[in-house]
Amino acid sequence: MARLLRSGEVDLFCSEGLTEAMNDDRKEFGDARVLEVLEQYLRSTTARIQGEILKEVKRFSGSAEQNDDITLVVVRSE
């Protein structure tokens, strides 16, 4: 399916490794946390949005081993 982005719109594409990243208690990072970080940095550059999401996943995961690859692409239309 194709969709045109409106000027300034941000889309985020990610693998399940991002949302399913677990902490030491085996709780998943989840969609809601991704959206919280996205909303907090929505007006930032795409690089910063990506960096902040990855930083939050690392903070959340603590010393838990990464179980899956994490792929994250953030796109803003102009």
What attributes characterize this protein structure?
3 helices; alpha+beta
Write the layout of secondary structure elements.
Elements: E1 10-14, H1 16-19, H2 30-40, H3 46-61, E2 72-76
Antiparallel strand pairs: 1-2
Strand order of the largest sheet: 1-2
Shape: elongated
Poorly predicted regions are none
How far apart lie the N and C ends?
21 Å
- Given helix and strand content, the structural type is alpha+beta
Main beta-sheet strand count, sense and barrel state: 2 strands, antiparallel
Strand content: 5-15%
Quantity of strands, as a count: 2
- What is the radius of gyration? 13 Å
Number of helix segments? 3
SSE pattern: EHHHE
In percent, how helical is the residue content? Answer: 25-40%
- Average of the residue pLDDT scores: 93
